[in-house]
UniProtKB/TrEMBL annotation:
<protein>
    <recommendedName>
        <fullName>Integrase</fullName>
    </recommendedName>
</protein>
<dbReference type="InterPro" id="IPR011010">
    <property type="entry name" value="DNA_brk_join_enz"/>
</dbReference>
<dbReference type="InterPro" id="IPR013762">
    <property type="entry name" value="Integrase-like_cat_sf"/>
</dbReference>
<dbReference type="GO" id="GO:0006310">
    <property type="term" value="P:DNA recombination"/>
</dbReference>
<dbReference type="GO" id="GO:0015074">
    <property type="term" value="P:DNA integration"/>
</dbReference>
<dbReference type="GO" id="GO:0003677">
    <property type="term" value="F:DNA binding"/>
</dbReference>
<keyword id="KW-0233">DNA recombination</keyword>
Length: 106
């Protein structure tokens, strides 16, 4: 894995130079981290992101190594919970759909 990772890092540096990407290094790890962060931000479930990254229970690497919650995500979550408390009926179709999807994944 070490040789492959070094080769990929070298290629990514050449790519960064070609694309005029300055400030910091573009590496294999940074590409994985960026993918995971963007996927989480658009709502892709963590188990799917972990699968895409090749993580498993066996590797003991978690998605938390790659993704961090941003303040706007926390603000949106708090707002959504308050909306749910104030008007739970609005969320009923979503909750029912999510329950059905979860049952399909089992």
């Amino acid at each position: 894995m070490g040789n492959l990772q070094r080769y990929i890092n070298k290629c990514m540096k050449l790519l960064a130079k070609e694309l005029n990407i300055n400030g910091g290094s573009l590496t294999y790890y940074s590409a994985r981290k960026t993918f995971a962060q963007f996927a989480a931000e658009i709502g892709i479930p963590y188990p799917i992101i972990e699968y895409c990254l090749g993580h498993s229970i066996k590797t003991s690497i978690t998605i938390n190594s790659y993704v961090r919650v941003k303040p706007y995500q926390a603000d949106a979550a708090i707002k959504r919970v308050v909306e749910y408390v104030n008007n739970p009926e609005v969320f009923r179709p979503y909750i029912e759909m999510r329950s059905q999807i979860q049952m399909m994944l089992m």
